[in-house]
Amino acid sequence: MKAWGGRFQKATASQMDDFHSSIHFDCRLAEEDIRGSIAHARMLGNTGIISQQEAETISAGLQKILDRVASGQIVWDPGAEDIHMNVEKLLVQEIGVLGNKLHTARSRNDQVALDARVYLRKEITVIQRLLTELFQALLTIAEREKETILPGYTHLQRAQPVLLGHHLLAYFEMFRRDYGRLQDCLKRTAVLPLGAGALAGTGFPIDRQQVALELGFDQVAVNSLDAVSDRDFVAEFIFVASMMMMHLSRFCEELVLWSSMEFGFVEMDDAYSTGSSIMPQKKNPDVAELVRGKTGRVYGSLMAILTVMKGLPLAYNKDMQEDKEALFDAVDTIKGSLQIFILMLETVVFKRDRMLNATKDGYLNATDLADYLAVKGMPFRMAHEAVGKLVRDCISQGKRLEELTIEEFKAASDLIEEDVYETLDMKNVVKARSSYGGTAFEQVALQLEAAKSWVDSVK
């Protein structure tokens, strides 16, 4: 008979058992469920709801089950529906009828909310460690490439030269914000729901603060209905995971582009590339492409949890069982993507000469010529128009701006002097971008030092 079967006259249909059971995926919460149950049992003993001896026997039995779980000795029973009832069944087998006292003053509703929060807190910490490894990889490469010049792009068109170190630090900032979002999510996840019961609390004299302290929760949920009926912390995490995957995907897209013959800015390592089954010459950036593709999985998990929750009345509804597979998949995908991305990134070879040569075509120093005229006193809009006409003339002649003679420059404006050639030198163009946060050499050096200090502070 089911643990809840007292008021039923018929057994559930076998099809219903298969459809209803969640043990095939929520068995991943076994450790969290057992640790939460140990804390609950100790609280029951300390408050006198059960005797201290009973609490100790229950806790010892749960610890034995936890040890068996860790060693892979447990075979989960689909007939017991979920991880909570499986653990309780194993406990009764271990210590006898006393195991039935464990569920005093709690419901599976607050129990599963607890398990999910304990699990997610652990996984957020793991993901933050992976982000820290990514920070280290980014900073190592940015330091090495802090004087490498390449074209910066807007609309995927060459725009202005930037330092590769500056470009990499842009991704550092994106992932740093993701780290902060995880930290914020962690705060809202570390709220203890246990003690809310099914929805209305309990009449037993429980001590929720004791359980919170033992499990490392910062707060106790203040409303029993809210504690069991929302999964906003799950949705928030998957949103943050979606942001991280989006940032990884953009980075991967650039590596895919840069590794093409058309760009030739990077060489992907053989260990993180694949070939073609028909074209012997091919070297495909499959890791970058697959991370880019997996972004859609996490987006899908986000839409799944939002859709599950959007129309649910208070309090718990069975629909909420669908939160865990979305959560597990998002966790697995972001962890796997970060791990392989870091390994791949650390092996990428950046082709400095190819990058520098690419800055020589496309008139990336045109803005500096306009700025030069503006400094000389010409209104910027007029300077913009004058340089635009020079660029047009250069295109028709197949010349670069710096290849124009001084006479050709002066035909455009008498304000232009011989020092214009120094202004148009690509290193000086980069050097001139010295505003705070810019791509100038000294600014990138400052950004690197600040980034290193921040990473040291969160290790």
Strand content: under 5%
Mean pLDDT: 96
Spatial strand arrangement across the major sheet:
1-2
**Uncertain regions spanning at least 5 consecutive residues:** none
In percent, how helical is the residue content? Answer: 55-70%
Largest sheet: 2 strands, antiparallel
Task: Briefly note the CATH topology name of the largest domain.
Answer: Fumarase C, Chain A, domain 2
Description of the structure:
This protein has 459 residues and is mainly alpha-helical. The chain has three domains: 12-104, Fumarase C, Chain B, domain 1 (Orthogonal Bundle), CATH 1.10.275; 109-151 and 164-199 and 222-355, Fumarase C, Chain A, domain 2; 358-450, Fumarase/aspartase (C-terminal domain) (Ribonucleotide Reductase Protein R1, domain 1). The protein has helices spanning 14-20, 23-26, 30-46, 52-70, 83-95, 108-144, 164-189, 208-215, 224-229, 232-258, 286-309, 323-345, 352-358, 366-375, 380-397, 406-412, 420-424, 426-432, 441-458, and strands at residues 149-154, 157-163, 191-192, 219-220, 266-267, 349-350. Strands 1-2 form a two-stranded antiparallel sheet. Strands 3-4 form a two-stranded parallel sheet. Helix 6 (108-144) packs parallel to helix 12, helix 7 (164-189) runs antiparallel to helix 10 and helix 11 runs antiparallel to helix 12 (323-345). The chain is elongated.
